[in-house]
Write a structure and sequence with these properties.
Blueprint (H helix, E strand, L loop, with lengths): L1 H32 L2 E6 L12 E5 L6 H9 L6 E5 H4 L2 H10 L2 E3 L2 H4 L3 H17 L3 E3 L19 H8 L4 E8 L16 H14 L8 E9 L9 H12 L6 E3 L9 E3 L5 H14 L6
Length: about 290
């Protein structure tokens, strides 16, 4: 009897936690809708499967896309996220992270020689969670776009995960429309959620909450079985880059107030910029060779 009661109490507490988080996610999605007009494609074709791990692999064009993505996924899934220590420790982000119980991966420069070991431990926690039937979000690049394209370089994180948790489902996610926002590196090399969040109050007040200009964002989800058969990181990364970069991103500027006009232009990455991005990827990527 004690076991039965204990089990019922655990299930009730678990149901309450999920319900609260889902409510918060719905509220977050409503708040985001005041600035972003988000079109979601493919989510209705992906069913939740109990006791089978699900690996979500999104691109990462801006600081805001993880929040947009989580507000979408929590309607059906309750995924954890592999998150960079440096970003997860920031004030606003830290509060959000408490809700999703992230798997933290260290920031390279601060960990030195111990970096690879800590990265390996984080990847092992990811594969262990997938084997237990959990849902995990992993950003293959481990960093923001430096140009208007996703570049994975020689990252081996996804190769490791697929090798050690081959039974997992893989969902590819492509987010477009955010390149050029204040949360992207299109305008600054150091976008800040805290700094940009300060504009929110003025934005809502000036536009009477509901009448502000909205940035069009598309989030496309596709269940993919091909990637698991590719094997080597080079093939995996090339495959992912081809998927993420299928729709060329434009450096679009969306006004903050209803009386302003929007503008957009294509930004062609310079060869020097791409080279620097690749070098930076090798040094500071959250998911590197293991």
């Amino acid at each position: 009897m004690a076991i039965l009661v204990g089990g019922l109490l655990y299930m009730l507490r678990r149901w309450q936690e999920i319900n609260i988080k889902s409510t918060i996610a719905r509220f977050a999605r409503w708040v985001l809708s005041l600035r972003y007009c988000v079109e979601v494609v493919g989510l209705d074709r992906i069913e939740k499967i109990e006791n089978q791990g699900t690996l979500f692999l999104p691109n990462h064009p801006a600081l805001i896309d993880p929040l947009i993505l989580m507000s979408i996924l929590y309607a059906k899934f309750q995924p954890r996220s592999l998150s960079d220590e440096d970003q997860a420790s920031k004030p606003v982000v830290r509060q959000v992270m408490k809700l999703i119980n992230p798997i933290i991966i260290p920031q390279t420069a601060r960990n030195g020689r111990r970096y690879k070991q800590k990265v390996l431990q984080a990847l092992q926690e990811v594969t262990g969670s997938l084997k237990r039937g959990e849902e995990i979000v992993v950003y293959p690049s481990g960093k923001l776009y430096h140009t208007n394209r996703e570049i994975l370089g020689t990252n081996s994180g996804i190769e490791y995960i697929l090798k050690h948790a081959p039974e997992s489902r893989v969902i590819l996610i492509r987010t477009t429309g955010l390149w050029g926002s204040s949360y992207s590196k299109a305008k600054t090399n150091d976008p800040s959620i805290v700094f940009s969040a300060k504009r929110v109050f003025i934005f809502l007040l000036a536009n009477m909450i509901f009448w502000g200009p909205r940035r069009k964002v598309a989030v496309e989800l596709i269940e993919d079985n091909t990637i698991k058969s590719l094997g080597h990181r080079t093939k995996i990364n090339t495959y992912l880059e081809r998927f993420y970069n299928k729709i060329p991103e434009e450096n679009s500027s969306i006004p903050y107030y209803w009386w302003q006009k929007s503008s957009s232009h294509k930004k062609k990455p310079e060869s020097r910029q791409l080279l620097g991005d690749t070098r930076n990827h090798r040094k500071t990527s959250a998911v590197t060779k293991t």
